[in-house]
């Protein structure tokens, strides 16, 4: 007979944990039964209070968010509210109608407004317009390259100074390395002398 035939009911991890708590007298069977019979899923007053605090905190966050939204809506009411938008739209319509009446009366003003400000054609022949565009592109590239060159020229004194500082630091580092090497040689020599003295005293 298989093992699962002997135990028709499977034990969940939660049930095994509760059984272990009951066996160690951490919880009693009556507390578990009373907790399972209540609608609240908590097992103690501390958990119930913590749950209440969490719910209260969520409610406060929700109210704070609603208050922020109301403040934002109040701040932008003159832009987004339909009442103010309708008033502005009416004023714009009145202005447009007044402008149309004015243009009907002033024929010369209407002709001046209808006339384009710039010329319709470039003052260059059609077969030369492509070269004008190429020259403009070359001019823009030249300006960009000139700015880069000027930046390099401005930064060159600082680069020379930094290179000199780097050479000075390298010289100081080499001097420190030489000092460390001499000190290490002295330590090794003293260690050899000390070890030779100890060997002579042990043989004597």
Automatic annotation (TrEMBL):
Q: One short Pfam family name for this protein?
A: HAUS2
Highest taxon in the source lineage: Eukaryota
| GO CC annotations, alphabetized | centrosome; HAUS complex; mitotic spindle microtubule
Q: Which UniProt keywords are listed? A: Coiled coil
Q: Name the GO terms of the biological process aspect.
A: centrosome cycle; microtubule nucleation; spindle assembly
| InterPro entries in alphabetical order | HAUS2, HAUS2_metazoa
Q: Which residues form a coiled coil?
A: 53-80
Know the name of this protein? HAUS augmin-like complex subunit 2
User: From which source organism is this entry?
Assistant: Eleginops maclovinus (Patagonian blennie)
